[in-house]
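Before a colleague's protein record goes any further, I have to sign it off. What it holds is a sequence and that sequence's fold in token form. My question to you is simply how this chain folds and whether the tokens agree. Thanks in advance; the entry in question is below:
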Amino acid sequence: MFKKMVEKVKKMGEIKKISEFIYEVPKEGNMRVPGRIYGNENTIAALNDEFQKNPNWNSLQQMENGAGLPGIQKYLFALADVHCGYGLPIGSVFAADPNEGVITFGGIGFDINCGVHSLIVPLKASEVEKKKKEIAEQLFRDVPAGLGSKGNLELGSGELDEVMEKGAEFVVERGCGRREELKFIEENGCVNGADPKNVSEKAKQRALRQIGTLGSGNHYCEIQEIEKIFDEEAAEAFGLEKEGVLVSIHCGSRALGHQIGTDYLSILAEASRKYKINIPDRELVCAPIESEEGQDFFSAVKCGMNAAFANRQAIASLVRRSFAKVFGISEAEVKTLYDVGHNTAKMERHKVNGKMKELLVQRKGSTRGFGPDRGEVPSKYRKVGQPVIVGGTMGTHSFILKGTEKAMEETFGSTIHGAGRAMSRTRALKMWTGSQMVQELEKKGILIKAKSLKGLPEEAPLAYKDVEEVVNIMHKAGISTKVAMVKPMVCVKG
């Protein structure tokens, strides 16, 4: 056993450097395609260190496993924020041919369509600074957060079915925002083909009071100052100005998505056996895309995605009201920059071997970052490319990037979603206390409002990779380029 471990570590240490920011895991054993990593020497060192410390649960092994899935195209990609997840690494993406490929739980995860919804507030950071405590308290009162939090939208099971079918449009119809905002949400806030019949009653019951809630963990509602502009043309198209203000809302499908994942683990496990698909990791259980089980799971995932779009749209409406109360501005003056998810499965057209193909792209902690001239990008942004919202931590910068043509050519129009964890939650909890975190960040001018201080250290800035280094890798690789850098002013946590 020890000899096999040594051989494995040696093999992982022989990752091939393709260019300054691209590395390749060679195609060996059951791999159908190579693995491709966007990173630098620090990225590779961290991946090897992760493997040596835990040879049974690490990103490199998960990449190798994922690269053996049927129908996979080109590569199994790991991006600069890569770290170990369930089944596949967080910060990974792959595309599968619908006729030969599979849909897998491990390629999406439990928090279906976790993503970020960003709003542009018509105020200067200096104006917000004067009332920072007041707006922090108002957001803390208005935005339900924390484990088991309940939203203001009380839904019957039939209405929840509507949420899963209509997405963000449903909550707009209920008075949460305006219809014209929907075009600034990925897929216009609704993916087609969501059938609530493929979602269990237990999942529905868990979700009845969760639309319009942040949840806990790494989810947040953050007021940010636009500190630096890198790309004037894109910033102008996006409506971003230096010293302006954004609010970013990071959350997903809450208990609904988690229960969908839990329910389908056993269904997909049975499908894997039925279709004789070799599964090296139970979290990679899967079904052929065109099979009954595959289509049922895909439909359920779409239900979770639509619920997440609705959830973020509902929270955005609460944020608008908070700013209207504190600053006397109109809710209509607070504009949507963009809303984009990073735990998704979607049919998209991409080029493979010089030909356009319809593919199922499965993004796990990976954001869609489409380049210029793609019809899926709002017309207002189409000339420069899609906005990409990259979250840092409650104590570090975040970034607005734009999608590129190179991403379309190389990564199926995919890019990073955040900094990526560098430390386990368990270890982080041993290193800091919640009150310590609040005090340290307040010294930096960042107000933290949290429902529970106990879990706050899990999200400590030092528990994550250096977001600026991660962003610069993707920027210099040309996959998604920098438009603006923002810094936190107020962060509401669960």
Summary: The first helix runs from residue 2 to 13. Residues 1-7 have pLDDT under 50 and may be disordered. DSSP finds 15 helices and 19 strands in the chain. Residues 94 and 276 are 21 Å apart (CA to CA).
